[in-house]
């Protein structure tokens, strides 16, 4: 008996388990037993080089008994990300090409919201130009106005991120049966603080970049023009 897991874990889920020794193992003349997958659970990423070194040592021992042949792992063992991109055991993935495609797509997808955020911030600044002009007239420096606009933009992002987190958790619970098709999903899969933190930091960076130009323009505008602007 083994502990039941969700079928979302494709490499750990099964309805029936059988010990390897319960079935006949067909061994070829080269002492190869066919297509098998083995998963090694490392404590942390620092163990990866040690595991690869040990596996390579076993490969050399195996090749030592076959003078006419030389077995290769084709870049294996893989970490989970690389293994998910591997088409077959004999076809190592081009991770650099895959990552390049991924980052290009992400960059293109982020251009549109970045432009929208910059336009929204600029529109908000134009509506508040008279207020900023009055502040400049009473002694506020350009750096004060610039800092105020940036901090307001970051604060709005943090508030929006918290609201988005709450709404996403509620939606995940309410739509869990529809999204995961009745699978057993642990709360740790729905709520990963480190993932939320990375996403929030990225949104803050994106918002900061999109607010720099409108903030700079608002702080550089002439005081009289700002006050008279409607």
What does this structure look like?
By secondary structure, the chain is mostly helical. It folds into 2 domains: 20-85, no CATH class; 95-228, no CATH class. It is 61% helix and 0% strand. It has 9 helices and no strands. Helix 3 (95-127) crosses helix 8 and helix 5 (142-174) packs antiparallel against helix 8. The longest helix is centred in the middle third of the chain and has 33 residues, at 95-127. The protein is elongated.
Please compute the radius of gyration using only Cα atoms: 28 Å
- Amount of beta strand: under 5%
The sequence of SSEs as H and E is: HHHHHHHHH
Low-confidence stretches: none
Could you write a compact summary of the structure shown?
By secondary structure, the protein is an all-alpha fold. It folds into two domains: 20-85, no CATH class; 95-228, no CATH class.
């Amino acid at each position: 008996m083994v502990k039941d897991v969700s079928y979302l874990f494709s490499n750990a889920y099964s309805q029936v388990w059988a010990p390897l020794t319960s079935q006949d193992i067909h061994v070829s003349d080269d002492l190869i037993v066919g297509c098998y997958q083995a998963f090694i659970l490392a404590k942390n990423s620092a163990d990866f080089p040690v595991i690869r070194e040990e596996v390579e040592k076993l490969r050399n021992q195996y090749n030592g008994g076959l003078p006419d042949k030389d077995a290769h792992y084709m870049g294996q063992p893989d970490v989970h990300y690389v293994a998910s991109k591997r088409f077959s055991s004999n076809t190592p993935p081009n991770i650099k090409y895959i990552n390049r495609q991924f980052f290009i797509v992400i960059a293109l997808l982020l251009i549109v919201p970045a432009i929208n955020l910059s336009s929204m911030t600029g529109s908000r600044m134009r509506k508040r130009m008279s207020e900023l002009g009055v502040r400049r007239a009473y002694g506020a420096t350009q750096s004060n106005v610039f800092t105020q606009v940036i901090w307001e933009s970051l604060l709005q992002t943090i508030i929006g991120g918290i609201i988005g987190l709450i709404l996403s958790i509620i939606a995940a619970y309410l739509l869990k049966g529809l999204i995961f098709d009745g699978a057993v999903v642990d709360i740790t899969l729905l709520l990963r603080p480190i993932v939320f933190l990375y996403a929030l930091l990225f949104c803050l960076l994106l918002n900061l970049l999109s607010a720099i130009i409108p903030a700079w323009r608002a702080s550089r505008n002439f005081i009289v023009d700002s006050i008279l602007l409607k």
